[in-house]
Amino acid sequence: MNVHPEHATPDDVPAIHALRRSLEEWMAARGIDQWPVGSVPLERIAAQVAAGDWWVVRDDAGVRGSLRVIPSDPEYWGDDDTPALYVHGLMVARRATGTGLGRALVEWAGQRARDAGATWLRLDHRASNPHLDDLYRSWGFEAVDVTGRPGFEVVLMQRAVAQRPSSASGTTATPSGRR
After folding, report:
1. Alpha-carbon distances of 75 from 56, 80, 107, 146, 149, rounded to whole Å
2. pLDDT values of the chain reduced to their tens digit, one per residue, 179 residues
3. DSSP assignment of 99-120, as one string?
């Protein structure tokens, strides 16, 4: 699946928040421990959208999927200056479950990481969510650490970013073939 996320706008904030809340409630109803209901206020999403962190994929019904892509994550990864991009808040509307949209969004983020010259694409999940651990491992991520948070633990995962082949001169080709 090829996706073309767009930067979220302030108009997307209510839809991103509603998607998050619907997924929080869906997981809670099934006993899945990932995102507690009400754990992210609308104001936080608005600030993150204003910072340019959120990306969305839309369909005729609205926001179909979304994710945050950020260049550092000191809250979970500490003061790590390794070249990496971090994925947070990966969400797919229930109407798009099983379409491959989640993986396509992660692959898109991997492309952005590659284009930025990052070495790693990183994400995390609650240690109490083995489904996400299995899913992310199937996408090539490996657990590198577990960090404690108040009341829960988080598994930090990463995968190497595939770089474009280098020429003999050590430069990296661009998509157009120019250097």
Report:
1. 23, 11, 24, 13, 10
2. 889 999 999 999 999 999 999 999 999 999 988 998 899 999 999 999 999 999 999 999 999 999 999 999 999 999 888 999 999 999 999 999 999 999 999 999 999 999 999 999 999 999 999 999 999 999 999 999 999 988 899 999 999 998 655 444 333 333 333 22
3. SSHHHHHHHHHHHHHHHTT-SE
Chain length of the chain: 179
CA dist 69 and 87 (Å) reads: 5
pTM value > 0.70: yes
The token duo for 13 is 């904030």
- The span from the CA of 24 to the CA of 94, in Å, is 12
